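Our example copied in:
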Amino acid sequence: MVQAGGAETPDSRERMSKAALVALYAFTLFAVGGYATFGLHPQLLSAVPQVAGFYAVAFTFFSRTQVWLAMGVLALILSLYAGRRWLPAFALLYVISLSSELLGTGVGLPFGEYHYTDALGTKWFGMVPILIPVSWFFMAVPSYALARFVLRGGRAAERVLLASFLLLSWDLSLDPAMSHATAYWLWGETGPYYGMPLLNLFGWYVTGVVLMGALAAVRADGWLERVPVRWMAAFYGANLLLPLGMSMAAGLWGAVAATVAALGGAAVLARWLGRGRVARPVAARAEAAA
């Protein structure tokens, strides 16, 4: 039901939120299934030439559509719950992440030497696909939302620290899936983690800190508190499912283990940060009672 004036009711927002998540999960599972079937078993394509042509198109279609669909789903939910208040944050994070990627593809910092293939579409200055900064945004937001929920009442620096770790956890399966199992981007130097230089992890965390700091600076907490945190957790999971599922299908179990371990580390970090915050009020009450 829609209220007078066109405003969505809580029930209608919840239904739309669930439907959007279902669509994203369904598309992601279909994409992972296609990769596991044809991407890893190209001999199946020779038996059906029509399918071979379809998969060649699908390789680019599904990767690009996945990004735009995820962004569309997040934009819909943010608009339903927070109106247009999130748009300045999107613009800011797009510029920050694009600048970081341009530096990375241009001079090899802060991620190491790499370049994008043409599989992800049109590029800024022929270097960075226009959809890459979009993906930074739609994973930075749920990472920050989860951190602020777990550390509710905590300091901004603590939220930034934890949120950046959650964002980095995603990359531990994303990079192996997209640059080792497939070739959406290629490294110009050899590294110990599925060909990825360890500098990339440092670059991801530093970029994450800047992005999360920007969200805190523009007071994203004000509009994020309106969005159900369970939905944000499910959205984070939907975006993690694609690279994690591809890594599992390709047998990259080290990447799977590293991702799970990082998420476990994030839980430990959240507990440690939260414990310090709880201890302060307890000490203050003890002093007051004395």
Notes: Confidence is low (pLDDT under 50) at residues 1-6, 278-290.
